[in-house]
């Protein structure tokens, strides 16, 4: 039996934060000793260190001023002509962070526990090159942008049943209700298989039409999709309507809209491997609706002309598997979990084979 332990495997963020702006400053170098040619110590550096126990919310609470300054280097003196380096400042951050400067320059990423990133160098100590005067450390205002890393990201409009699906295949208890936007913050769970293989699944806030233009939760949702390895579309077999003031969309239209929103946000998302879970198969007329949807997906070109041009994606999504499910009754959940494992294992094998081919090719070229 595949299961998920919420207590052990779900990262809990509390009041979820996925971006934080902080001030970092490398330490000033120490003063040189011109008369004896002594060099001051280098200022300390500021490093970010990935820590799975840390969240951006915890950082903000622990360091409300959001200022991180390394220690200055010590001055040169008669007793110690070479000054000591200032102490580095290490800042724990959650994995999944992309670090950028105020002008948008990317400084680096931190994806795994223990990874380190230098974000502000300390100044040089006074020496002959600097006329024995110390230099100041680097100063930056940097942005910590959290993009969740998961094997599978659940994609769907509000009320598609993503949270219900997660609660069915795991011991998680996300908020579930029959109104839009019950999932207001991302949550990650890990599916554990009998052979101890684990797959992480991210339950993400629901999209709406116009999300690519930052409507609704917009970019706050879409940026987390970027770093998931596999997309799992979850749709209501009966169709979707956000409110009485918005158009009703059939299941086929829903898929096209989701694909279009991803495409407009970032074209690279079109290349991600995707599965489709057709939910709420326990409802009346679900079987007939599902059969109609399958017919439309087999030959989508025959139906695209019925849609408004703005709803038609440049590239039609090709799902590796289409699975009818009921998050309410559990129908299809075991098949879905098995498919996720199969596809992720296949992709891992393909990456290994691709790497081996590249290594052989490089070896061959080196012998020419």
UniProtKB/TrEMBL annotation:
GO biological process: ribosome biogenesis
Domain Obg: 14-149
CDD domains named among the record's database cross-references: Obg
Gene: GTPBP10
InterPro entries: G_OBG, GTP-bd, GTP-bd_Obg/CgtA, GTP1_OBG_dom, GTP1_OBG_dom_sf, OBG_GTPase, P-loop_NTPase
GO cellular component: mitochondrion; nucleolus
Similarity comment: family membership: Belongs to the TRAFAC class OBG-HflX-like GTPase superfamily. OBG GTPase family.
Subcellular location(s) per record: Nucleus, Nucleolus
OBG-type G domain residues: 150-345
Sorted UniProt keywords: GTP-binding, Nucleotide-binding, Nucleus, Ribosome biogenesis
Lineage: Eukaryota, Metazoa, Chordata, Craniata, Vertebrata
SUPFAM superfamilies in the cross-refs: Obg GTP-binding protein N-terminal domain, P-loop containing nucleoside triphosphate hydrolases
GO MF, one annotated term: GTPase activity
Keyword Nucleus belongs to the record: yes
Coarse class of the protein's main subcellular location: nucleus
This protein's name: GTP-binding protein 10
């Amino acid at each position: 039996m595949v299961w998920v332990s919420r207590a052990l495997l779900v990262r809990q963020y509390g009041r979820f934060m996925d971006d934080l702006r902080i001030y970092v400053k490398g330490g000033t170098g120490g003063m040189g000793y011109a008369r004896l040619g002594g060099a001051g110590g280098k200022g300390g550096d500021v490093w970010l260190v990935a820590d799975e126990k840390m969240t951006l919310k915890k950082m903000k609470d622990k360091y409300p001023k959001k200022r991180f300054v390394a220690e200055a280097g010590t001055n040169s003196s008669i007793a110690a002509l070479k000054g000591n380096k200032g102490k580095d400042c290490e800042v724990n951050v959650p994995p999944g962070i992309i670090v950028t400067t105020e002008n948008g320059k990317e400084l680096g990423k931190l994806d795994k526990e223990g990874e380190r990133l230098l974000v502000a160098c300390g100044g040089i100590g006074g020496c002959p090159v600097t006329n024995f005067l110390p230099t100041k450390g680097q100063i930056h205002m940097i942005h910590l942008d959290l993009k969740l890393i998961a094997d599978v990201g659940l994609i769907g409009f509000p009320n598609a049943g993503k949270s219900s699906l997660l609660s069915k295949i795991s011991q998680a208890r996300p908020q579930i209700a029959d109104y839009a936007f019950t999932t207001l913050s991302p949550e990650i769970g890990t599916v554990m298989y009998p052979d101890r293989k684990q797959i992480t699944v991210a339950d993400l806030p629901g999209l709406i039409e116009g999300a690519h233009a930052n409507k609704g939760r917009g970019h706050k949702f879409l940026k987390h999709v970027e770093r998931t390895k596999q997309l799992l579309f979850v749709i209501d077999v009966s169709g979707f309507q956000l409110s009485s003031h918005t158009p009703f969309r059939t299941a086929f239209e829903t898929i096209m809209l989701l694909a279009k929103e991803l495409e407009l946000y970032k074209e690279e998302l079109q290349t991600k491997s995707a599965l489709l879970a057709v939910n709420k198969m326990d409802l009346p007329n679900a079987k007939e609706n599902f059969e109609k949807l399958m017919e439309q997906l087999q030959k989508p070109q025959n139906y695209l002309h019925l849609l408004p041009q703005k709803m038609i994606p440049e590239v039609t999504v090709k799902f590796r598997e289409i699975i009818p499910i009921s998050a309410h009754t559990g129908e299809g959940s075991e098949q879905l979990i098995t498919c996720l494992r199969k596809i992720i294992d296949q992709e891992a094998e393909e990456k290994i084979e691709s790497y081996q081919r590249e290594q052989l090719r490089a070896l061959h070229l080196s012998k020419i």
